C-alpha cells in the first residue's frame, strides 16, 4: 500500500469540514430557528428583547413573538421555495417592487442546492480517504463538482438575500437586516472546497511521481542487495564459472 502524504490528509480534512459547514447552512431556519442565512431585527423593542425574523434554506422563523415575556418562537412549515418579500411586507411593512419580489421568491427554489452540495462534498471526502491515485482523482473530480454547486448556491444566496436586506435597511422602518451564520458557513465551505480539491489533486500527482521513482530505484538497485555491493545472482554466476574452470583444469570433464 502506498504511503500517504500528511499533506493529503489536510485536503481530506478540508473536504470534511466543508461538508459540515454546508450542513449548517442546510439546517438553517426553519429546521433550526436560531441559524439564519439572513436575520432581520425588528423594531418592536420591549424591556426584554427585539423580535426577529430568520430566513434559511427551506423557510423562515419569527423569534421572540409577542408577548416578549413568553419567549415564543414560531417557525413556519418547511418547503422548497417560499416568499421572503411577502413575509417582510406582512411583518414589517417593507415595500418591494413587483420585479424585486418575484426575483427574490423565484431564487428561493434554487436553495435546494445547499443539501445537494453538502452531499456531494461528503462523497468527495469519502473518496479522498482512499489515498491511492484513483481515489484522489475521483475525490478531486467530485470535490470540483461540489465546489461549483456551492459557488452557484452562494451567488444565489447573496443575490436573493441582498434584495431583501437592501429593501429592509432602506425602508425607514428602523429594522436591521444582516447576513448571519448560514451565509458565512457557505462562504467558508466554498473556500475550503477550493483548497481541499487542489490539495488532493496535488498529492495525487506527487504520489504517482513517488511511485515511479521508487519503481525505477528498485529495478536498478537489485544489483546491490548484499553487504558486499553485489547481489546473490552475480555471486552465484561467478562461483559457478570458477568451479567449472577448475574441473576442466584437473580433467574432471
Describe the structure using short key phrases:
7 helices, 253 residues, five-stranded antiparallel sheet, alpha+beta, single chain
Strand order of the largest sheet: 4-3-2-1-5
Q: Mind describing the biggest β-sheet?
A: 5 strands, antiparallel
Shape: elongated
Q: Helix coverage percent of residues?
A: 55-70%
| SSE succession | HEEEEHHHHEHH
Beta-strand segment tally: 5
The residue ranges in which pLDDT falls below 50 over 5 or more consecutive positions are: 218-230
Q: What integer is the average pLDDT?
A: 83
**Structural class by secondary-structure content:** alpha+beta
Query: Total number of helical segments?
Result: 7
| Fraction in beta strands | 5-15%
Q: What does the radius of gyration come to?
A: 32 Å
Determine the N-to-C terminus distance. Answer: 52 Å
Amino acid at each position: 500500500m502506498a504511503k500517504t502524504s500528511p499533506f493529503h490528509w489536510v485536503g481530506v480534512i478540508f473536504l470534511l469540514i466543508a461538508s459540515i459547514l454546508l450542513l449548517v447552512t442546510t439546517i438553517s431556519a426553519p429546521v433550526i430557528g436560531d441559524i439564519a442565512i439572513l436575520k432581520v431585527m425588528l423594531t418592536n423593542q420591549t424591556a426584554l428583547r427585539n423580535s426577529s425574523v430568520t430566513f434559511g434554506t427551506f423557510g423562515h422563523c419569527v423569534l421572540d413573538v409577542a408577548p416578549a415575556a413568553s419567549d415564543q418562537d414560531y417557525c413556519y412549515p418547511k418547503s422548497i421555495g417560499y416568499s421572503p418579500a411577502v413575509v417582510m411586507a406582512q411583518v414589517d411593512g417593507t415595500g418591494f417592487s413587483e420585479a424585486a419580489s418575484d426575483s427574490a421568491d423565484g431564487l428561493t427554489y434554487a436553495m435546494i442546492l445547499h443539501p445537494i452540495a453538502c452531499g456531494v462534498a461528503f462523497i468527495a471526502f469519502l473518496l479522498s480517504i482512499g489515498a491511492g491515485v484513483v481515489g484522489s482523482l475521483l475525490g478531486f473530480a467530485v470535490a470540483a463538482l461540489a465546489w461549483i454547486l456551492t459557488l452557484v448556491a452562494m451567488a444565489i444566496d447573496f443575490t436573493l438575500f441582498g434584495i431583501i436586506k437592501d429593501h429592509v435597511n432602506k425602508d425607514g422602518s428602523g429594522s436591521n437586516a444582516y447576513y448571519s451564520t448560514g451565509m458565512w458557513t457557505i462562504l467558508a465551505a466554498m473556500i475550503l472546497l477550493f483548497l481541499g480539491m487542489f490539495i488532493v489533486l496535488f498529492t495525487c500527482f506527487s504520489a504517482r511521481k513517488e511511485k515511479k521513482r521508487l519503481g525505477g530505484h528498485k529495478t536498478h538497485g537489485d544489483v546491490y542487495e548484499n553487504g558486499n555491493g553485489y547481489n546473490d545472482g552475480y555471486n552465484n554466476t561467478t562461483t559457478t564459472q570458477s568451479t567449472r574452470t577448475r574441473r576442466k583444469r584437473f580433467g574432471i570433464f
